[in-house]
Amino acid sequence: MLTKKINKKQVEEFLLKNPDFFCESPNILSQLNFPIRKDEEVKNVVSFKDWMINNLKLQKDEIIENAKHNYFTQQKIHNAVIEIIEKKKEDFFKFLNKELPNFFDLSVINLICSNKKLCQSFNLIYLPYEEIKKIYNSKNFLLMDAYDSKLGIFEEKKIYSNAIFSLDECCIGEKILLFFGSKDNRFITNRAYDLIFFLSRIIEQKLKEI
Predict the structure, then answer these.
(1) Residue 207 in contact with residue 167, Cβ under 8 Å?
(2) What percentage of the chain carries pLDDT values higher than 70?
(3) What backbone torsions phi and psi does residue 115 show, to the nearest 5 degrees?
């Protein structure tokens, strides 16, 4: 029973502000009563039990889907790593920005740097140094997020989400970015973060060697 100090509206407001309240205090549920839908004519009645079961099913499905995605991505990355290791300098850059995106069904995988000559020679993405500085984080930092149109590049690719890895400056003697661009939201959900990070480090090491 509600006391005079706490009215129904206050309880509703509290639950709306704390949507995980029952998840964090599940024991309370066994002491509460919920409306029961006895026939199809009753409207606006929600079975809390069914909601909980469906919610758990959705969580399970999401976990399974993520596991499948990570498994297949891992296989692709292993194959890509073998290819990267075997490539010579001229073939590596072509493989990176022409063939590697197809491995993962991505729109773009390429390096972004401010060296115009290097960009022209190996079909890399040019961006002024001051713009790169705004994006570059600490060495080996991986950002996975929605694509920022302020970059002023890849408009024709219609990128929706991206992963951007800040490469070690030792690779070419300046700040350089490794860019992964997708037309879907895969990088917003942080799927396969560890695998993308691993692939980025492999690419970084290859750049140091060539």
Answers:
(1) yes
(2) 77
(3) -90, 100
Pick from 169, 171, 164, 110: nearest CA to 141: 164
Higher-confidence residue of 49 and 170: namely 170
* Of residues 49 and 99, more confidently modeled: 99
According to DSSP, the β-strands at 125-126 and 108-113 are parallel
Burial of 134 (0-12, 13-18, 19+ CB in 10 A): exposed
Structural domains in the chain plus CATH codes: 8-53 (no CATH), 60-209 (3.30.450.40)
pTM comes to 0.66
